[in-house]
Amino acid sequence: MKAANFLNFTGVAVLCMLLFTSCKAEKSRPGDGKIGGAAASRTETNFTIRYRPKWQSQAQFAGVYMAHHKGFYEQYGLDVKIQRLLQAHEATDSLYHGCSDVVHIDLLNALEENRDSTRIVNIGQVTQKNSVLLVGKKSRGINSLEDFRGKKLGMWRSGSFLITELFLLKSKIPMQVVPIDWSISLFTQDVVDVINAMRYNEYHQLLQAGIREEDLFVVDLAELGYQIPDEGFYVTPEFYHAHPQECEAFLRATMDGWLYAFSHREETLDLVLKRMQDDNIRANRTHQGWMLEQMKEVVMPSTDEMGILKKQDYQNALQLMTEFYDFPRNIPYEEFYPNAAKKRR
């Protein structure tokens, strides 16, 4: 027991050390400014916000990149620091430990963070649609949902996995879950029969790997009624109530960045690829171009919806979590999304 307690203590200590180090010593790319230091503050006339993405540099975050690169944040009185992803801990950990001010995570994950109390609130919904697919090979006998029964499913360990778990629980389809780390290799090598895939990312990777669309059986969870939008911007309630205007400015500038990105495709891809190369990430222009086009479908189904967490979408997510994930709280829409009174939606 003492050994177990010592190991638990050591694990906590290591996590705290990683978080402290990331706050104090993490370096920024040229032009982004320093990441570490005190909480949000003003530098001369602009208000500093430290933003942490949910994943590594790619076109999934093109709106943020273009808002920063084109000076939109500055026009809204902000000095935004785009932080690098640290694999050692979740984005919300950096939020709770004061290393970040705004984090980028999925709606279902945000609800789960609020299981016991309201620790984070939504200041803007990036995507308006769900992009999660379940993809199987017809050559492995996958031609219908019923064929999923008893098959091996490669499912993400973190991130956007909750919608797939909820699908399995609600549909009562028994599958052997194999945890995967955002790679398609177990699927291409036939280790798993079905794989989680984002339409804007892993699905296109499968096509680039030489698998033909007609050889795949694809389940779009949104079309099955799991229309739970993915990604949003989140802050602590304390940060929002102290800086509501700055939160609104961050959202507006970012949506302006997305509009610019969609209308200036090649310029945007140039910047995305540069950021990826600066981070030593293998960059594929064709794939990033696909991602940007697919992001347009989910970020901007119509311009009047951009950035808004709609009440019906929130209620659908809460209902699924309550019914199938033992979620104990009926969090009011206005508490989870404090901009609701302004949006009137």
CATH architecture of the largest domain: 3-Layer(aba) Sandwich
Shape: globular
Enter the CATH topology name of the largest domain. Answer: D-Maltodextrin-Binding Protein, domain 2
CATH class of the largest domain: Alpha Beta
Task: Give helix and strand order, one letter per element, not per position.
Answer: HEEHHEHEHEEEHEHEHEEHHHHHHH
How many helices does DSSP assign? 15
What does this structure look like?
Helix content is 43%, strand content 16%. The radius of gyration is 20 Å and the shape is globular. Strands 1, 2, 3, 4, 5 and 11 form a six-stranded mixed beta sheet that branches. It has a five-stranded mixed beta sheet with strand order 8-7-9-6-10, with no helix packed on it. Residues 1-22 and 24-39 have low confidence and may be disordered. The longest helix is centred in the first third of the chain and has 24 residues, at 2-25. The protein is built from 15 helices and eleven strands. The protein has two domains: 48-129 and 229-343, D-Maltodextrin-Binding Protein, domain 2; 132-224, D-Maltodextrin-Binding Protein, domain 2 (3-Layer(aba) Sandwich), CATH 3.40.190. By secondary structure, it is an alpha/beta fold. Helix 2 (62-69) crosses helix 10, helix 5 (107-113) packs across helix 13 and helix 11 (265-278) packs across helix 12.
